[in-house]
């Protein structure tokens, strides 16, 4: 697998024309923070029928994660953020690494004002029907470490060999039992582009926008969602989880 071949398969052609569509909030979500140093906790978000907003099932962030919330959200503060183009996208369907399952890679615009585009690489689960499998988002640490490192050298469906250009099948990849998303974030990490974020609040909002866009564009994977990561991802995951909980509470109230 040559590096230029990898880029051709994974990266859509650069274009200023992105398709826009109205976003819907993610469905049943189970947010799990898996860290190298320590587990922080988990909670679940239950979906509702039809086009109603998602509902939260669980306790407070403090009791579930064992820490105080690191962000203060005002109801409605971010209500307009998902309307300016977070669902703009460029998608490809590569076959490298694990040709036995459906893959998707590409970009979603997470902040049109600052031209931020997050790159992802998605693999369906191997064992279970994808529509019945959980979906897991993996975040590497750093900050600034590409999650493709995790995909190709840690928990992905293939491993990069020592020659640096070929891969081998990984029978222990996490997509054995879960649909998997490996995401380059924050902006400027790996293939992700745009003006760098300068705070956890910015990263939190961009990650949330990515999830909204992904699950709107691929609703078939919108169930039993897990959020996992290592190292510095322990800073991102709690605030993104808090954002999900707060936004769902706001939607429930509205």
UniProtKB/TrEMBL annotation:
**What residue intervals traverse the membrane?**
27-45
MF terms from GO for this chain are:
serine-type carboxypeptidase activity
The record's Pfam families line, in alphabetical order, gives: Peptidase_S10 (PF00450)
Gene Ontology biological-process annotations: proteolysis
Keyword Phosphoprotein part of the UniProt annotation: no
Q: Which UniProt keywords apply?
A: Carboxypeptidase, Glycoprotein, Hydrolase, Membrane, Protease, Transmembrane, Transmembrane helix
**Domain of life of the organism in this record?**
Eukaryota
Q: Which Gene3D superfamilies match?
A: alpha/beta hydrolase
| Family (UniProt) | Belongs to the peptidase S10 family.
**What protein does this entry describe?**
Uncharacterized protein
Species this chain originates from: Perkinsus olseni (Perkinsus atlanticus)
């Amino acid at each position: 697998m040559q590096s230029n071949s990898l880029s051709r398969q994974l990266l859509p052609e650069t274009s200023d024309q992105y398709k826009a569509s109205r976003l819907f909030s993610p469905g049943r979500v189970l947010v799990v923070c898996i860290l190298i140093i320590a587990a922080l906790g988990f909670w679940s978000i239950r979906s509702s029928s039809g086009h109603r907003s998602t509902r939260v099932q669980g306790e407070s962030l403090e009791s579930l994660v064992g820490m105080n919330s690191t962000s203060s959200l005002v109801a409605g503060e971010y209500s307009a953020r998902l309307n300016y183009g977070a669902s703009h996208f460029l998608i490809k369907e590569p076959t490298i690494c694990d040709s036995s399952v459906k893959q998707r890679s590409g970009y979603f615009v997470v902040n049109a004002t600052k031209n931020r585009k997050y790159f992802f690489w998605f693999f369906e689960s191997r064992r279970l029907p994808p529509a019945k499998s959980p979906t897991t988002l993996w975040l590497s640490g750093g900050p600034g470490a590409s999650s493709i490192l995790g995909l190709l050298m840690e928990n992905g469906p293939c491993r990069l060999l020592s020659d640096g250009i070929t891969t081998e099948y990984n029978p222990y990849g996490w997509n054995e039992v879960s649909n998997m998303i490996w995401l380059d974030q924050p902006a400027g990490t790996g293939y992700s582009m745009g003006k760098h974020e300068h705070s956890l609040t910015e990263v939190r909002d961009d990650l949330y926008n990515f999830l909204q866009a992904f699950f709107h564009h691929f609703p078939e994977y919108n169930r039993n969602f897990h959020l996992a990561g290592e190292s510095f991802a322990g800073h991102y995951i709690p605030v993104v989880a808090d954002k999900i909980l707060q936004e769902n509470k706001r939607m429930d109230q509205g």
